[in-house]
């Protein structure tokens, strides 16, 4: 795992020393992504500079160092990620006369691009990656992002330069980096708690979206091309659905996951896994242990607060699987101490509060291993989110009613406060009682008035009218508002999974895991997001995902081969921290400073009146607005952290 950055100047008249100085600074801004070594490659006559920071995982020798030049001398690569089938591609290249200098996956990718071309090569790869390839003959730079968006990359085209990097902070070191805040993106952030799609927090900086590549030559417009599409996966699944029995499906998924997990256990450094005790991480760990001759290292963190502690469940699974388990119980103060670090590591506003425990478990894990496998992706692929089986269970009952009746029901729900609903819910056994019951009911009441797609948008929204909060901001209406999606994917649960895979998965879940793990120089691998698993999951009928009102049916059957059902069966628990009570208690002073009328007005982004209203309601205990308030706080904290450009902090380059 590494960090990549670079730039291509339109006016190629700079001295190589100047290019090298800027490139080194761009790489050093991401030292946490690659603390083992770093170097640059520049070519003054072309105006190209490539910078790489290395976290050595495979081939720890100098033969795996980057930037790396192809055997023919034509191509230069920098690369972030891991490709798990490089040992199968290597013989193909050797048969064509390639003499390898080392055993890194980087060299396989590079020589593949030299022989087959970039697009044909990346379509062969199983793994996660961002690569940048410079063609010295055509003087063309090509940047590629993996299919699911596991690894990040940003880019910008200015009148003088094309810039790119794994993190925004690398681009911002460059003196030509655009820095105007994208107010429309801020509005989108308030709805979703992340900045989605191709946008970034800066108006002229973009994300390269999953499954896309971009190529550029000096003084020419960049060319974007999609090499992998979830739409194609969905279409192929429609034309060739899985038609076997339950037993055949279980065995097919079992074999596929064994292979996907086994591939991700290859490393020349110590390796382990995150273990929460839930379906996804327990499945990954079980499959790892089944293929390991010694106990797998597993890691979890716990909290003393009721409703937020998964460590006890993880310990039970670890004991059954006989892993070498490490757990750490985190005090509230230790968790709160992470908060000031978040704006730096996340680079742009990001307010999924599970970023805090994700960082903490990564930090603890890095003290023992360099690579950790994670269970992310199971919810999106196998219908694990509560909204999926809620939609199946209640969808017909809700949306089969006349709209006037739904409005009446909404009024009845809203007539009782969330706190009172929580008290009433105590009659439900704790093992079956949803967390934040009252707030979820009130959220449901807000969306009863619309159709199914409005229902989905409501479930994944924080601020429902962000345009009214952001001064001069207009929320981008992306794929969630695209009526064509409903026509192409008529099944509502399929449609939610499709939208989550294109939005929430890369822009929230994978962003969180990447930034939190790389902040401590830990490589996180996600076997459930092997693209072959994605292909298979989309071929499955929904009754193999949701059954008897419970999600992830097929994945559970694989897990039950290794772990007794009673160790797993419990309500889904979010990986979070008690932000709601912290904001009323130990974080109140910090929050009040950022949410004061003075701070909000000085920032120049938000209208303070609706924010102050929500804040006062939260403090009073009448409502729990923790997620909406956290959105504002994370933006305000980010804005304070980023008032001074890194280029200024590190010194201008002339």
Please characterize this protein's 3D structure:
The structure is a single chain. By secondary structure, this protein is of the alpha+beta class. It folds into four domains: 3-228, Glutamine Phosphoribosylpyrophosphate, subunit 1, domain 1 (4-Layer Sandwich), CATH 3.60.20.10; 233-384 and 498-567, Rossmann fold (3-Layer(aba) Sandwich); 386-494, no CATH class; 579-648, no CATH class. Helix content is 44%, strand content 14%. The strands form three sheets. A six-stranded antiparallel sheet has the order 2-3-1-9-8-10. A hairpin with a 3-residue loop joins strand 8 (154-157) and strand 9 (161-165). The chain starts with a strand and ends with a helix. InterPro entries: Asn_synth_AEB, Asn_synthase, ASN_synthetase/amidase, AsnB_N, GATase_2_dom, Ntn_hydrolases_N, Rossmann-like_a/b/a_fold.
Q: Summary?
A:
The protein folds into four domains: 226 residues, Aminohydrolase, N-terminal nucleophile (Ntn) domain (Glutamine Phosphoribosylpyrophosphate, subunit 1, domain 1, 4-Layer Sandwich); 222 residues, HUPs (Rossmann fold); 109 residues, no CATH class; 70 residues, no CATH class. It contains 30 helices and 17 strands. Belongs to the asparagine synthetase family.
């Amino acid at each position: 795992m590494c960090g990549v950055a670079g730039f291509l100047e339109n006016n190629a008249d700079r001295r190589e020393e100047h290019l090298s100085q800027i490139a080194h600074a761009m790489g050093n801004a991401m030292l946490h992504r690659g603390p083992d070594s770093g170097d640059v490659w520049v070519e003054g006559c072309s105006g190209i500079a490539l910078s790489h920071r290395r976290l050595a995982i495979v081939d720890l020798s100098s033969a795996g160092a980057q930037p790396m030049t192809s055997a023919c001398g034509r191509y230069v690569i920098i690369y972030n990620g891991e490709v798990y089938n490089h040992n199968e591609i290597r013989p193909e290249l050797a048969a064509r006369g390639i003499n390898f200098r080392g055993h890194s996956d980087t060299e396989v990718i590079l020589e593949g691009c030299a022989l087959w071309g970039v697009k044909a090569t990346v379509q062969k790869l199983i793994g996660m990656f961002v690569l940048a390839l410079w063609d010295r003959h055509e003087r063309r730079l090509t940047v590629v992002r993996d299919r699911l968006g596991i690894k990040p990359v940003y880019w910008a085209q200015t009148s003088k330069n094309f810039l790119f990097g794994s993190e925004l902070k690398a681009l911002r070191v460059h003196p030509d980096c655009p820095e105007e805040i994208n107010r429309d993106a801020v509005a989108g952030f308030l709805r979703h708690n992340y900045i989605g799609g191709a946008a970034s927090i800066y108006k002229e900086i973009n994300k390269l979206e999953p499954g896309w590549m971009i190529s550029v030559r000096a003084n020419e417009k960049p060319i974007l091309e999609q090499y992998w599409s979830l739409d194609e996966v969905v279409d192929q699944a429609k034309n060739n659905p899985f038609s076997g029995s339950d037993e055949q499906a279980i065995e097919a998924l079992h074999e596929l996951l064994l292979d996907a997990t086994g591939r991700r256990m290859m490393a020349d450094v110590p390796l382990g896994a995150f273990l929460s005790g839930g379906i996804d991480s327990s499945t990954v760990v079980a499959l790892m242990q089944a293929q390991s001759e010694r106990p797998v290292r597993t890691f979890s963190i716990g909290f003393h607060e009721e409703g937020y502690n998964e460590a006890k469940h993880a310990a039970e699974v670890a004991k059954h699987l006989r892993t070498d388990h490490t757990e750490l119980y985190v005090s509230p103060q230790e968790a709160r101490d992470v908060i000031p670090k978040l704006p730096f590591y996340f680079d742009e506003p990001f307010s999924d509060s599970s970023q805090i425990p994700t960082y903490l478990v990564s930090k603890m894990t890095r003290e023992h291993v360099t690579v950790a496998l994670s269970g992310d992706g199971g919810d999106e692929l196998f219908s694990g989110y509560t909204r999926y089986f809620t939609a199946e269970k209640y969808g017909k009952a809700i949306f089969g009613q006349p709209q006037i009746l739904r409005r009446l029901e909404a009024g009845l729900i809203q007539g009782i406060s969330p706190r009172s609903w929580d008290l009433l819910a105590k009659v439900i056994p704790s093992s079956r009682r949803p967390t934040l019951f009252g707030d979820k009911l009130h959220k449901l009441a807000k969306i009863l008035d619309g159709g199914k797609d409005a229902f989905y948008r409501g479930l994944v929204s924080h601020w429902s009218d962000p345009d009214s909060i952001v001064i001069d901001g207009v929320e981008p209406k992306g794929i969630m508002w695209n009526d064509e999606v409903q026509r192409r994917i008529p099944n509502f649960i399929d449609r939610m999974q499709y939208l989550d895979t294109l939005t929430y998965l890369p822009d929230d879940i994978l962003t969180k895991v990447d930034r939190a793990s790389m902040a401590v120089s830990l490589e996180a691998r996600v076997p459930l997001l092997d693209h072959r698993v994605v292909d298979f999951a989309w071929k499955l009928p929904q009754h193999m995902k949701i059954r008897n009102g419970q999600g992830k049916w097929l994945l559970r059957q694989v897990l039950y081969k290794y772990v007794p059902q009673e160790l797993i069966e419990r309500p889904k628990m979010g990986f979070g921290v008690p932000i709601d009570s912290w904001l009323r208690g130990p974080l109140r002073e910090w929050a009040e400073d950022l949410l004061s009328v003075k701070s909000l007005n000085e920032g120049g982004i938000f209208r303070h009146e609706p924010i102050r209203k929500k804040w006062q309601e939260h403090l009073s205990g009448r409502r729990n607005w923790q997620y909406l308030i956290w959105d504002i706080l994370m933006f305000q904290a980010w804005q304070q952290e980023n008032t001074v450009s890194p280029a200024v902090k590190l010194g201008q380059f002339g």
